[in-house]
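User:
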Amino acid sequence: MLEEQVIRDALRYLGSKGEDPSDSELLKNVFDAYREVFCPRQVTATFRVKDHEPALTFEGCAVTLVGESIGRHFAGATEGIFSAFTLGVAFDRKVRELSLTRPSESVALNALGSAYAERKADEMLKKVREEKEAEGFKTNFRFCPGYGDLPITANVEIAAALGATKKIGLTVTEAGLLQPIKSIVGVTACVPAER
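Assistant: Predicted structure:
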């Protein structure tokens, strides 16, 4: 099921409408051939909201999130789930290696990686959200730095609060870019269900 969704999403990333069966066949063959480089790893932690104004801050970590869009996302929230996900460096190496020898496979693998990372990160985070919902919270979607007016540099603080480099091998440049490339960092709001 996940594989079918990933291939369908990857077709969209490639700009294909799926009308040419050879596109789907290429993606399936590449996915099968390089399955071992898809090594999903995730780390999550929950932090209590300290302040909503003038910026969103959390107890127990040095994360300050600024912007109207993140403020709206966390309206009424008392906690936030921080998450970091990566496919790992082996994936990046394989894409680079194939770009020199099999460019079409490199492009296909890159598209598959984007699609797989989004789907798998959602799947892994869903379990954490369900636990919070069982505790009496409503949760919303993962809001990533770069969405709305939340600066991409917020990746630095969130990843640091999670210990993402040590725990899953994800690093962040000063500019907020994630390495390995197929990585995702974000925050999910937890609002008490009675609100």
